[in-house]
Amino acid sequence: MTDAEMALAANEEFYRAFAQGDLMAMDTLWSGDDDVTCIHPGWDILGDRYSVLQSWQSILAAPPPVECRNARVRMSGNVAVVICDEVIVGDALAATNVYVLEEDGWKICHHHASQILAAVRDPVAPQAANDPSPSIH
Amino acid sequence: MTDAEMALAANEEFYRAFAQGDLMAMDTLWSGDDDVTCIHPGWDILGDRYSVLQSWQSILAAPPPVECRNARVRMSGNVAVVICDEVIVGDALAATNVYVLEEDGWKICHHHASQILAAVRDPVAPQAANDPSPSIH
Lengths: 137, 137
Hints:
Two copies of one chain form a homodimer. The first copy, chain A, is an alpha/beta fold and 137 residues long. The first copy, chain A, is 30% helix and 36% strand. Chain A contains four helices and six strands.
């Protein structure tokens, strides 16, 4: 597997853990650094590992049936920036996930998700919303 | 200047161009790559340079008095991930800006901004909202 494929695989695992409420996997997926960051939809910035994992513990207690679609990755050395859609029961969100290559694989160090307003979804959506295949560029 | 300081300076220039409606500077600040991406608050993902710059042309026709606060940067090789607050006339937003080092300096290749709901601002805000000084870690 290429680095890009491994980063996209880490992103798929992130959404599997998210959808299945797998907190142990989520903990392992995040970088061990204390300066990880996370911006949930409508939330302020969480700026340390404890706050980030605490937020996931809360969210994963009742995990939503989230699906990741249209993931594409920009690689640059040991950093992978993955942009994707999140679909949660008809709601559409846009996500930025940043992965870094650490000793035990690609780890997420930043997550930012925001809701897409229904009114703007169609006019500004060049992607095929139903295409689940990842693209690498 | 260190790479981190130069990346933060590019981020400051990004917000100067944003607030002053300086489309020429905004065009220069963005990477020349076609695969740049941009997620405005509530918007879908814009996934090519033409769409991204077209969106900025529209926004900068009536630029909001945006202020960048609490910028912090994560460096990894030729990539800088800047996380910051955006304040627009009392509204608070959270932003992710990814910069890459190109031949003519640090260029933005991804912008993601989302509104912070007032109801969650206080309970989850560990940062000092009034501290304009950037931090590097």
